[in-house]
Amino acid sequence: MERKIRIEFLGHACFKLYFNDYSVVIDPYEKGYVPGLSDLNESAAMVLCSHEHGDHNAADEISIDGIAVDAPFTLSVIDSYHDEVKGAKRGMNKIHIFRYGDYKIAHMGDIGCSLTDEQLMPLKNADALLIPVGGTYTVDAEGAADIVRVISPGTVIPMHYRGETFGFDNIGKVDKFTQLVPNAVVLTPKYSAEEGECIFEL
User: CATH code for 5-201?
Assistant: First the structure.
């Protein structure tokens, strides 16, 4: 079977990943939690959450597909911090890495700290890196750019930023980040209330 990956942006840090016909929603947000975002109306075979905050942990908002099927990818998790003081402010964060054949996709959750060499190693050369860039609750544009330079992903997909019609008022826009990584391939998702935007395919 030909391996295909599709990534759709559902808003904030929430994405729907398709591995052929198998789908995963990661970091769904609660109804009314993130300004400007519509309620989620999605189903998937699996739901993952990077941490237990309302803009990332609303697994009950996603309907689970009725027939249980084994995931076609391997999934690994890197434990990290949601802040720069070892979780003292905001707790822990999970980085999820999907390996599907020769492909590697990483969702950084609400990473709020720098990473050790040991944590960075399995992330290096990811085909797609989904990373927050807005600051306040996560790494800011500079912190995200530093991580991207070390990991050197094929494609960078920014998340957890403030758009023109959505997002928290106290987080940054995406422009500063993109200016800091001029040599990276950056695909900036745009939110549509009607449907998820396909922003990446392999």
Answer: 3.60.15.10
